[in-house]
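Dissemination and training. As part of the outreach component of the grant, students in the summer workshop were shown how a complex can be specified as a set of sequence lines and then modelled as a single object. The example used during the hands-on session is reproduced here so that future cohorts can follow it. Participants entered these lines:
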Amino acid sequence: MNRDELLLQLEIDQLNARYAAALDERRFDDWPAFFLEDGRYTVQARENFDRGLPLALIALESRGMMKDRVYGITQTIFHGPYYTRHVLSPAQLLSPEGERIRAQTHYAVFRTRPGDASEVYNVGRYIDEIVRTPEGLKFARRTCVYDSEMILNSLIYPI
Amino acid sequence: MNRDELLLQLEIDQLNARYAAALDERRFDDWPAFFLEDGRYTVQARENFDRGLPLALIALESRGMMKDRVYGITQTIFHGPYYTRHVLSPAQLLSPEGERIRAQTHYAVFRTRPGDASEVYNVGRYIDEIVRTPEGLKFARRTCVYDSEMILNSLIYPI
Amino acid sequence: MNRDELLLQLEIDQLNARYAAALDERRFDDWPAFFLEDGRYTVQARENFDRGLPLALIALESRGMMKDRVYGITQTIFHGPYYTRHVLSPAQLLSPEGERIRAQTHYAVFRTRPGDASEVYNVGRYIDEIVRTPEGLKFARRTCVYDSEMILNSLIYPI
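and obtained this result:
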């Protein structure tokens, strides 16, 4: 791996950090802009991913669907409030596929409910296809493959 | 973001790693030297931070105050012993303000008490103002904004 | 620390990420190849490490011993299945010793058992001696020093 390839890690780390900060600081309206207009966001259990099954907890196929999701989260879904905190490993660079940068990042998301201790909420890995655009790196595809079979209550906010 | 700005992430990651190692290896006497002489260290609940309230759990405004704190921790406070372990995301670079480097880093601190399993202790983010000095990067200001409203027992060691 | 030294962090982060991915994706047969032929892998409680005691939970002194271990894990040991997920801090570079790169990395390993929530399994730090070979960076020595005195049940998979 040459120096330019190595430096890509830094760019992806910065992208991941901005993404995590937007979610954890509850700037949900900023979330769809991390993706291409026709970007895909999928949240899938590891068991289904490993077996190649299409079943996913969440599967959004455009920014428009992501905006609908954000509207649902912030305006219509009734749920108990909680804070999230993403802690991420440095990104692992995978071999590129044509124009697309491929990377994988292990994550842990912690949840804190009012008046309660923080707890492990969801752990897994992001599997990403990233494209360089005039507005910076964007996700063509982000798949969140989670280990946690039992999602504590329901998953409301994006991972 | 150009290459030199990107490389800053590595310098801050190294600073963060040394800081975390000093605390987790209980070299508390080394801790004040991570700050400028008039550096500020604040530990604040997210709720207060988000509302702009000044109320903080800990607010130290010089190395001298930090040394007093370390003396208190190591010499005078009676408390049950525990180990800490910091796991940090790569640092996120924020736009600089004059001479000051600004960065933010998500953290998880785990606690292990003798004979017990490790547990999530405190999660949140560091919000930092960093200055380049002849002795390397130093914190002009480190604010630890924690999600965890209920601090498990009392917080003894620095975050 | 000059630029070339800083860039080493990226190489070690990539090594750590590949290592963690191999374990968490259960590609255990790939694990010994992260080490030199006479590489050493040790898992030791922090208490023993800090006191300089030799007692270790696991001490393997060659790839051959690691392969035996993998055989044991995958073929002979009866145990309840679980998933692991490593989340790692960026690597901290330590001063080199001759030809060997020295680094230390804080880790958290989460465990997920079928139908259960994810939990903190083991936290600590890797203390590494790394050698550059024609096949890339390899561990001459990886010591996993864990804080968690009470290992939840028994530790089956490598850390």
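The first strand of chain B starts at residue 35 and ends at 45. Students were then asked to discuss how this feature might be tested experimentally.
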